[in-house]
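Email to the structure team, subject: Phosphate transporter model.

Hi all, the expression group asked for a predicted structure before they design truncation constructs. Nothing fancy, just the tokens so they can compare against earlier work. One-line instruction: predict Phosphate transporter, return tokens.
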Amino acid sequence: MVEVLFALGVLVAIFVGFNIGGSSTGVAFGPAVGSDTLSKLSAAALMTIFALAGGLIVGPEVVESLGSDLVETAFSPLISIVVLFFIGVALFLSNVVGVPASTSMTAVGAIAGLGLARGTLNAALMLEIVSWWLVSPIIAFWVSGVIGRYFYPRLVEWFAVSQSEGSLLDFDRSGSIPRPSLGENTTPREFVGTVVVIGIGCYMAFSAGASNVANAVAPLVGNGSLDMYPAILLGGGAIGLGAFTIARRTMDTVGNDLTDLPLVAAIVVAAVASTIVTFLSALGIPASFVIIATMSIVGLGWGRATRTTSLSDTVQGETPVASVGALTTDAEAADAPTVGGKKGTPKPAETEPIGEESREDIPSASDLFEPGTTARVIFLQNIVPSIATLAAYLVFKFLPIA
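Reply from the structure team: attached below.
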């Protein structure tokens, strides 16, 4: 019976990691794949490598928090299976409705439900985790807002790169070791831009591994079924399986269908969100990349929209209506050529000082922000972990699971 429960626990953990790989790969490499900078196969391989690296280097702290510190209840094989089941089902339901739920918040919610039901929840650690959940999106908003307000136009100029025909690199194979050189039509600007896009994707994959591998395997480590690093290898392998299979659709969705978010904006959001998530993972805090990235998008849009407003107007509450909650999807930015664009490199342009631009250029609110869609996304991002918490509490409170 013990062997059967162990095998079932491993299978459920693989299912959770599989779903994580399917959703996280699209977020990390969707922009690169959508701009034809990277193939889906290469993206899946990079996701597997860097997610595993994040899990091995930073992930043990998060595994420790979820597997042994958050609740004093011992994770028996059956308890581990039930907890992982709630995590996997919650993620599956979020995928069905097309809204990326927070894997970390869902995992913490399911484990917290167990702790509440058994009276063994570590309230101090839970308070610390929730505090960071509240603070980190605010940090993401303001960091991205500053970038959007003061630096975004210059970033657009720097990353305004078109793809040339032919291969990015040529290799001289005359010697024993192939020597790379820029392709016949490749410019240094194109090469640097391409490396940045791929590098940011790898950074996001590392961040996802640091935070999310624990969500798949922490209960198995907590009950002693698996040691730390074999469990991380299992979780990383499951993420890789998802990256090579179901992630092909999510990369299409994020890269081509989901949004008009310019690639340079996607780079900013990825860099800000990944840095915050990696930092929190190093502290042992399970962080929500989805919510942090969402607030980063909103902050970046707010910063860009309020470039047309003086600082005094902003303080006095006279910000144009279009800038309130603005997402970075205005037509001008969406049309700006970025890495993978086809319009060539624009000529350097003078950037108007803050607050001195013509207000006639302000995009309409409908170009920047869809309140209904955004409200639905934020609501579901928070309701899915809540459902996992309540369901786990009820099950462990009233059913004799040991």
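The first helix runs from residue 2 to 34. Strands lie at 169-172, 179-182. Ping us if the truncation boundaries need rechecking.
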